[in-house]
Amino acid sequence: MSEAKGIVKNAGVLFIADLASKFLSFFLVVAIARYLGDAGLGKYSFAFAFAGLFAIFADLGLSTYLTREIARDKEKAKKYASNMLMLKLILAALTLLPPLIVINFIEQSAEVRQAVYIVALATSFLNINNVFATLFASHEKLEYTALASILERMLTVGLGLLLLFSGKGLIGLVTAYLVSYIIVLVVSAIIAYKKTATFDLGFDRELWKHMLKNSLPFWFTTIFITIYFRIDTVLLQMMTSYEQVGWYNAAYKALDALYFIPSAVVTATFPVMSRLHDSNKELLQKLYKRAFYYLVVLAIPIATGIMLLSDRIIKFVYGSGFEKAAPALQILIWAEAMIFISALAGYLLNSINKQLVFTYTTAAATLLNIGANLILIPKYGYKGAAIATVITEGAVLIVLYHSAKANGYGANLTKSFLKPTIAALAMAAALLLLDFMNILVLIPIGAATYFAVLLLIRGIGKDEIMIVKEIKESIIK
After folding, report:
1. What is the value of pTM for the model shown?
2. How far apart (Å, rounded) are the C-alpha atoms in residues 378 and 385?
3. Residues 256-274: tens digit of each pLDDT
């Protein structure tokens, strides 16, 4: 299978799996919002955001580094995976205790404290599972990543809804995560052992030093990204109320459902970009430009459409009581659009051994985000947190794009944005003219208008049509 077909196959499989997983996740969030209300959704979001701030110390960047290294040399798989597994077990144990202690000093609610205890334990199992996810990604067997993702979502949503509707509330809900993460960990370990590389518990002191030294830039990147993705929720809770946390996260969760798009592209291309950096830089440049354009083609209409329909989307999804989430959605959608592109540029830098650039960028972005939140939240509440997120993502996009360009991997911005923007304006006009129609009718009309205009002005050509066909064929197979 050629490089292009391999990427198409993996991206197609991940796209479908992530679409299904995100749909299930979003369905669960909607159920939480409708059943527990805005404050309940706020408590749920806070528990995961708070526990997640500590969970970043359980990886040390090993997952990203080993994905790159094993993708380049499969002979390293057994030795690296065995030692990574041992390291992960130790790190999971060491990082479990801090959140269990700290939460008692900042939270009065016994329910929220108990939820954090359970989420922290569940997250430990999820972090251990990254060993097997790394093996799947490095061997480009992403169908198993997709299988694990769907299995986890089905278990979590099914059990979570059962416990939620049986009156177990927030505690029952987070317990569902713990149970599903344990089951998926066992299943992933069995599949990885049989389908990728055998492994055990390894302790090679020199290899540990080598892995930790070289993975630290990836780890710092993860730390900074995690902080500026989660700190807004924690700061909102500390400076406002659980209701505002709920409104903000109602918008955030709606957008999180879209992250499967850049995630599928980046996950599928990262191992290939890592190999091409050593073997064919010219092909890598072409791959980056093509992926960049495709992500722009998807990001612009999604941002435009959601901005125009935010009020109706929130009302349709969450019902009454969440109307105040609409302004946050209008703002945050532009941060999501920028993430589509910056994620690709960031992982390109990782693949060409320029991970320190990505690390420094996310470090500066974290400081920017915290500062912006501290300034804007007291004055504008949850809307201020949304504005801070857009400012941060805009800065990250600018820096990462120019860093990739400085290393020989640029993209023509006029060529990439002009035709998608024209098509998005046509779509916006159609949505405004047909505003009286039901939202379930408007969305497909908007999408059809956008792609019809894009096709008419040759923003989509034969290559794109062939790729769509290959995705369809890979899914059917």
Report:
1. 0.68
2. 10
3. 767 767 776 776 677 777 7
* Dist. CA 127–CA 123, nearest whole Å: 6
Residue carrying structure tokens 């956008």 = 450
Q: In the chain, where are the structural domains located? A: 3-411
Q: Which residues contact 430 (CB under 8 A, 6 or more apart)?
A: 445, 446, 449
| Structure token digits, residue 435 | 């505003």
Nearest to 46 by CA among 131, 140, 116: 116
**CA-based nearest residue to 14, from 249, 216, 261:** 261
Distance in angstroms (rounded) separating the CA atoms of residues 386 and 390:
7
The structure tokens 């930790």 sit at 212
Query: Measured between alpha carbons, how far is 307 from 301 in angstroms, rounded to an integer?
Result: 10
R_g of the chain computed on alpha carbons: 22
Report the distance separating Cα 292 and Cα 395, nearest Å: 18
pLDDT confidence of residue 1: 41
Of 425, 27, 423, 45, the residue nearest 232 (C-alpha): 45
pLDDT digits 0-9 by tens, 84-98:
788 888 888 888 888
- Cβ-Cβ contacts under 8 Å for 320 (sequence gap 6 or more): none
